[in-house]
Specification:
The complex is a heterodimer of chains A (539) and B (299). The longest helix of chain A is centred in the N-terminal third of the chain and has 17 residues. In chain A, the strands form 5 sheets. In chain A, strands 11, 12, 13, 14, 15, 16 and 17 form a 7-stranded mixed β-sheet that branches. A 4-stranded mixed β-sheet of chain A has the order 1-10-9-8. Chain A has a 4-stranded antiparallel β-sheet with strand order 4-5-7-6, with helices on one face. Chain A has 2 domains: 223 residues, Dipeptide-binding Protein, domain 1, CATH 3.90.76; 219 residues, Roll (Dipeptide-binding Protein, domain 3). In chain A, a hairpin with a 5-residue loop joins strand 4 and strand 5. Chain A is built from 16 helices and 19 strands. Chain A is of the alpha+beta class and 539 residues long. Chain B has 14 helices and no strands. Chain B is mainly α and 299 residues long. Classes of the chains: A alpha+beta (539), B mainly alpha (299). Chains A and B meet through helix 6, helix 7, helix 9, helix 12 and strand 15 of A and helix 12 of B.
Amino acid sequence: MAMAFPRPRFHRIGILLVLLVVSTTVTPLEGGAAETPRRGGILLAVIGAEPPSLDPHQESTFANIQLVAPLYSTLLQFDPYAFPKIIGDVALDWKIAPDGKTYTFKIRSGIRFHDGSPLTAADVKASYDKIVFPPQGTRSTRKAAFSSVERIDAPDPVTVVFHLKFASASLLPNLASPWNVIFPKKYLDKDPNHFKMNVVGSGPFKFKTYTRGGMFEGERNPDYFVKDRPYLDGYRFFISTETSVRAAAIRSGRAYIEFRNLPAPEVEAIKKQLGDKIAVQETPVTAHWGISVNNTVKPFNDVRVRKALTMAIDRYTASRVLYPLTGLKHIGGLIRPGSADWALPQAELEKLPGFWRDAEKSRMEARRLLAEAGYPNGMKVVLKNRNIRLPYQDWAVFVIQEWRKIGVEAEHRPLETAAWFADGQNTGNFELIISPPVEYMDDPDVWLGRYTTGSTQNWGRFSDPRLDDLFSRQARTLDPAERKKLTDELQRIALENAYYMPGLWWTRNLVHWAKVKNYVAPPNYYSNQKLQDVWLAED
Amino acid sequence: MSVYPLEHATASATLRRRLTAVEEVGKFIHAKPLGAAGAAVILAMLIVAFLARALAPYDPYTGDYELQFARPSLDHWLGTDEFGRDVLSRIMYGARIALFVGFTASVAGCSLGALLGVLSAYWGGRVDLLLERVMDILLSFPQLILALAIASILGPAVQNVVIAIAIPIVPRVARVVRAAAMSVKENVYVEAVRALGASRPRVVLQHIVPNVFAPYLIMLTAQLGSAILAEASLSYLGLGTAEPTPSWGLMLSGSAASYAEKAPWIAIFPGIAISLGVFGFNLFGDSLRDALDPKLRRG
């Protein structure tokens, strides 16, 4: 059993609130728990993008995790029925030393990878070494969340020990991240990038086929370590970036589920056509759509220009206009406004650039700042984006209209997912780029690491020692009130300097055929994607 | 020796009066009413495109957020879209993109094709062999598929759309013009100017190019409609112009499909504009071909 760890009070309240929100917004699954699961069938789904690679450690797009999550196991996981409760996956149980600096995990024995080799503590260590201490030439997207980890040991085949430099309030949720999958060590030893193009997991499904731009298939793993799971014979996911194509796939029954979101008018049309054959789960999402500003290029290294651009965006009107179209709804800072533990209070937010209630006054100030920066007649900018309409392009259209009001003409350049990541994350080949921080839970380590120097998620490539210091201090602070103070201050500095321009926080409509049972939508679209408990009431 | 006075045969004819421009237009309308209708559509498109700023009732980029999905009304004749932007104004400005891409891609593609066709025909030998094999490769792809491939490599931008549409036009025009140029090249007057020592560029530019101008013009008008349709298709597929640029194909894509049931006018009117524009160019192109083709003219 997991040893009780003195969790911060704020954390508990947060968990309760999330549970409350989920329980009140999720459409009850019709008799999901009461019905006897049916075995067999192929789950058909439609996915909205093509992944740049298949390695979840290196990627941060739903297009990756939704395709490959059913193929892998993780050390811990969020309870599929009760997010964000943490339960074991390959970890049977764990204990935490009284000083909070040593975490010891016992690994289930008898787990086998799909190539037949046993999963041992050495594989867990190798996988986490790759994440926490990525070798040269390998990207680790979530390295910053493990700043507390000093080293990882595997003293025997069923024991993994995480030694920390300092006690961390967020290590366990980070270990439950759906992205931190366990790879077989023997392949990582040969090539740490092996899993960008290959899949060998120990999850409920085995890899079957992948046609780029077309389809991804997995088949039931008969040797899965959870008894009698999975229920499905397999899954077949089609890929289409076009929202209307995905909606049509659901309407026609070519797909039974769209894991991410469909716009309200499409959902209404589907419900109208298919009636009670369709179920919709509306949830908040730990995701917001904002704009990364390349702080290393002129004129965006000038705080006045950055502030002008963010102040031109009327987020209150954006919420009213975009919510019915896209689900973009909530106005908040750098941590989800629904997250009572960590969100910046609304009153403080409204004092910061871009969040003033008086939009016209904000635009006047934006024009003044531009003039002061040497652009009295406005300027031309290039706004790069991902070629996915919902909500990337709708958000961009709104922003471009807003910037026109202060004389900023933006050329909009949508890119394929891989090119968008390459320009935004890898090379910094952009002036401004739509970039959504999307995570799987509300936690400052997860959300604020991207504002520190050198983070792979710091697309804007800014460096402010104050942010680095505050992030480091909050990660070491167990007192939730003190930690909140530090994270509020970090958010204030980042927003005041407009290092990044947050947009709106998302809500989503998860649409699926009612015959898809046992899928409870969490407030993100990354976790609960293993599908081991999902079953089909009919084919 | 007797002398016979020479008798010169004489004949006289009254030259037909040269028609005025108005009379020429009247004659064209009378002879080719469908072509005239096509020309009228093209003319209307040109006027709307050039005077969009003056004619459009609203800024095509700025939405009225209080009027999302407004039905067609006296204020907004063709309704508004999901951002409250006036559909009529966006169609008017969209004509600019359609005509700009249509004309530039067709002129660029046809001109390059004609040049390569003439060079291929005149030089012959290895130059002809090499150019024709390149054309074979390009012709082995359907026109739109090739444009799609090029556009996806170059990325979505107006200038890239022009390039993507122009390249597939090149081999089609090159083939037609090459055939015409080979025929012209064998004419005695070309032999004569070569015998007189005219340089190759002079032979090509002064004696061959003017004589292949008719097929060039026919191909140009024929490709104009296709180019407009290709621009709409690329934009529809997300490879052409990007939002919020008003483009007919773009107006039909994505959001129009999502909101087709709620606000059908978002899709219907841009669709009509595309059909009308392409129809106009095709009608005009057909008539022009009839007018310039000697065989059809005799008939």
